[in-house]
Amino acid sequence: MDRKTIDALLNKIDASATHEGDARTRAIVNRVVRDLFYTIEDLDVQPDEFWAALNFLAEAGKSGELGLIAPGLGFEHFLDLRLDEAEQKAGLAGGTPRTIEGPLYVAGAPESVGHARLDNGDEPGETLVMRGRVLGEDGAPVGGALVEVWHANHLGNYSYFDASQPAFNLRRSIRTNADGTYSFRSVVPIGYSVPPEGKTKQLLDSLGRHGHRPAHIHFFVSAPGFRKLTTQINIEGDPYLWDDFAFATREGLVPAVKKEEGAAGKPYDVSGQFALIDFDFTLVHDRQGLPSTEVERVRAEAA
């Protein structure tokens, strides 16, 4: 079928509308349908293949894996790059690099000022202390900024989604001190893979790709008047550090991990050896006319 015939069919479908509807939704859906029609024709997609794809998406939605498939196919990273481009065109620079949120945030984590302990003392693994400041692009400290942090346990699982873990395990919200400082104690996370029997693994296998993520820690960092930062830091030395299936690793987000012991741990109630990460977050002031960094999406919220 040639493009002229396909376009005539698309025009007929669009003309079937009985009222104006939402112009933005109509434009996006029409464009996506057009591109899919062209793809079906160009690649000679057969009915069995079309329905297999539709059934796959239905099953992935039912199992809650669309939030994994989106970063796995590069969509989240692509959206980040578009935000980067918009900010660069507006002359914004100097902030901490953003990277993907992923699907495992949970709202409502306990909040404290200055410091928090993320684990309950029962988590296996090496003790971790991470500390630093939240700064503006001019280097001035941002007091009262909110640092939301979450990461996986020693099995690569996240609390709330893993019912065996205590509520908000390895999740906290920290308000920075007046001098912009924050710190937290936890355990060094490990890398993990997508569910071995899941739809994401099935798709990645078909694409000849792996589903591994390097060890990482997630953050939201926000303050009034600044653009919200969604980012992660990665743990150096992980074998998948620069081969993340979700394309989240970025330059500037792989801090050094130092080994400390003794008096260095006293401010954090740590005795013996521990891993220490020093990392400052830099926020940039918001500006009119830019895409929002407050992304509206369905997120988990503990009861």
UniProtKB/TrEMBL annotation:
Pfam families: Dioxygenase_C, Dioxygenase_N. Residues 130-158 form the Intradiol ring-cleavage dioxygenases domain. Keywords: Aromatic hydrocarbons catabolism, Dioxygenase, Iron, Metal-binding, Oxidoreductase. Signal peptide: none annotated. It is an enzyme of class 1 (oxidoreductase). Its cofactor is Fe(3+). The keyword Lyase does not apply. GO terms for molecular function: catechol 1,2-dioxygenase activity; ferric iron binding. NCBIfam families: catechol_proteo. This is catechol 1,2-dioxygenase.
